[in-house]
Amino acid sequence: MATMALFSTILFWNDWFNALLFIRAEDKYPVQFLMIRVLNDIQYLRENVQLAAQNPELMRDLPNESLQMAMAVVGMGPILLVYPFFQKYFVKGLTIGAVKG
């Protein structure tokens, strides 16, 4: 039961597409949707350097991979902080349901 609860929590935590479709109030956007918007904005700025700034040399130095990795850490942070408290239930559920030989 705890395993299913953990998987469901992670599923809904990582869901940004429903926010894209249904949520119009910006104060209710989930963290993942805001991170996708930031990444898309940075990508747009990188592709349109001439339109984005007076000084295109500054725009070429925008982070890409490092920003993606930082966003991944921010997105995983709350799950990683909560998981150790539920780990014993997770392992217990896996071992009880395992095939014994």
Describe, in plain words, how this protein is organized in 3D.
By secondary structure, the chain is mainly α. Helix 1 runs antiparallel to helix 6 and helix 3 (31-47) packs antiparallel against helix 6 (65-96). The two termini are 23 Å apart. The protein has one domain (2-96). It has helices at 2-13, 17-22, 31-47, 49-52, 56-60, 65-96. The chain is elongated and about 65 Å long.
SS element count, helices: 6
Give the overall form. Answer: elongated
Overall tally of domains: 1
Count of DSSP strands: 0
How far apart the termini lie comes to 23 Å
Proportion of strand residues: under 5%
Average pLDDT number: 79
* Main sheet: strands, sense, barrel: none
User: Could you estimate the helical fraction of the residues in percent?
Assistant: over 70%
Question: What's this entry about, in short?
Answer:
The chain is mostly helical and 101 residues long. Helix content is 75%, strand content 0%. The chain is built from 6 helices and no strands.
Main features:
101 residues, 0% strand, mainly alpha
Reconstruct the topology from this structure:
Layout: H1 2-13, H2 17-22, H3 31-47, H4 49-52, H5 56-60, H6 65-96
Helix pairs in contact: 1-6, 3-6
